[in-house]
Specification:
alpha+beta, eight-stranded antiparallel barrel, 55% helix
Length: 342
């Protein structure tokens, strides 16, 4: 048992060792901004640069170019004096060893950690601290400023002030503009919805007025003919059979609802089309309107449609509000439906 346990532990250690060996640590890069924090001179003298004190700043573009300047930073601004633009090379030899060159001149470089490097020059040790905030917020602007200044080549020192306040204000303005854009889009949607609803209301009003006009201007012979057709329809065997089925609560099939539409349109031409023009009705709302036109009682409607009587009443009153834009009872809607083509 013991040899087996030792063999298992050895195998597990080998497995984890191989797994760990296959995971390479992330490659080190000089990309970003680095602030000179300390110089150790060969004659045992150390000079340190506290935050806010003028010192050197390097901004590396990848591991190929660096822009060096003297800089100071306050709460409101960053001031730089461009000094040089140098080509650099960083070669990873493995095991934390690097070959570093500035304009072809090799210089020993030691990586203390991800945020601290030490570069040796003429025996002196220069310690650089990574400044991720400066690199992120100012890196591109510093590189562009240095490149433009150094290309002029007049040899005169120029100071450039990069205002933190202006940058924050620009950020606030961008944020405000974006917020205003969203607000404008929201208002535009609301206005569009209101105008669409207003246009729908006007169109519906014109349709209702046309229904009333057709009803009042209908000649007496036409009204008598419609009344005769109504009397014949309600006395027909089809209607009597339909009433008996509804009274016993038998539900109608799809083809039977189509037959109801055809029979109603025979007596009231265009009735179903006018219903669809009034409002985008659900299937239940449409069927309730057809049954109203057939003089079916709310109780029988509830049985045929498998709904409560209260639901049928709610559907009718809700339709009245949707169409007329004001509260009304279920009977008010019934009277309106019965008046169409009457």
């Amino acid at each position: 048992m013991r040899p087996f346990l030792l063999l298992f532990i050895a195998a597990a250690g080998l497995f984890w060792g191989c797994t760990g060996a296959g995971e390479a640590p992330p490659a080190f890069t000089l990309q970003g901004a680095w602030r000179l924090t300390q110089i150790d001179y060969i004659y045992d003298h150390t000079e340190r640069y506290a935050p806010g004190q003028p010192t050197f700043l390097r901004v590396y573009q990848g591991d190929t170019v660096l822009y060096e300047s003297v800089y100071t930073q306050s709460a409101s601004a960053l001031t730089i004096y461009p000094k040089s633009e140098l080509a650099v090379t960083l070669i990873d030899k493995g095991h934390g060893q690097y070959v570093y060159m500035e304009d072809g001149e090799p210089r020993p470089l030691t990586v203390k950690d991800d945020s601290t490097i030490v570069i040796q020059r003429h025996g002196h040790l220069y310690t650089w601290q990574c400044e991720p905030t400066i690199g992120k917020e100012w890196g591109e602007e510093i590189c562009a400023t240095c490149a433009g200044c150094l290309q002029e080549g007049d040899g005169l020192p120029h100071g450039y002030v990069l205002s933190t306040t202006e940058r924050r204000q620009a950020g606030y303005i961008s944020w405000l503009l974006a917020l205003l854009g969203v607000a404008a889009a929201f208002i535009a949607v609301i206005v569009k919805m209101y105008l669409s609803k207003l246009e729908l209301s006007r169109r519906l009003g014109r349709q209702l007025e046309q229904i009333k006009t057709d009803h009042h201007e209908r000649p007496a012979p036409v009204r008598r003919a419609i009344e005769t057709m109504e009397d014949e329809f309600f006395a027909s065997s089809y209607y009597q059979s339909l009433q008996r089925r509804m009274a016993t609560g038998q539900m109608l099939k799809q083809e039977e609802w189509q037959e109801v539409e055809q029979q109603i349109n025979k007596v009231y031409p265009g009735f179903c089309r006018q219903l669809h023009n009034l409002h985008a009705m659900s299937e239940l709302e449409y069927e309730v309107c057809l049954l109203i036109k057939l003089r079916v009682s709310p109780k029988d409607m509830a049985q045929v449609l498998a709904r409560d009587v209260s639901t049928i009443s709610t559907v009718r009153s809700r339709l009245y509000k949707k169409v007329f834009g004001q509260k009304g009872g279920a009977r008010d809607w019934d009277e309106f439906i019965l008046s169409i083509n009457a």
